[in-house]
Amino acid sequence: MAKILVKQTAGNEDLPLPEPATRYSAGVDLRAAVQHTVYIPQGEIMLIPTGIQVAIPHGFEWQIRPRSGLALKHGVTVLNSPGTIDSDYRGQVGVILINHGSEPFAVRRGDRIAQAVLAAVEFVEMKVAAELSDTARGEGGFGHTGS
Known about the structure:
CATH topology: Deoxyuridine 5'-Triphosphate Nucleotidohydrolase, Chain A
Strand content: 35-45%
CATH superfamily: Deoxyuridine triphosphatase (dUTPase)
CATH class: Mainly Beta
Mean pLDDT: 95
Distance between the termini: 42 Å
């Protein structure tokens, strides 16, 4: 089991640490560390602080993903989904939310706003090649197989 060290930022010690909603949840819930209720207007984007800093183990990333209930009920999602928290990042974790809903969305202190999933990362080295191998797909992309 991988371990993630978590540091609560000043003034946010009252918020629960990220935890899974159920025993077999793939991710942990991230909470809003806003000092007062903020409203994300329809069609707008807002960076919401979580009040935590983390140390992700080398060879992993934390993928920040939307919560399905917020997406379904309110049209609110993580804009850069999935967002990535790299193993060498030590700043406060923030969640970029966008409101695709039909009315302003209220974010209150302690609300669960996203989930984070720990995922293994394969480090790569890029090499220049004069030619690439042929495949059946070739250069086809962006809908080349139909709608």
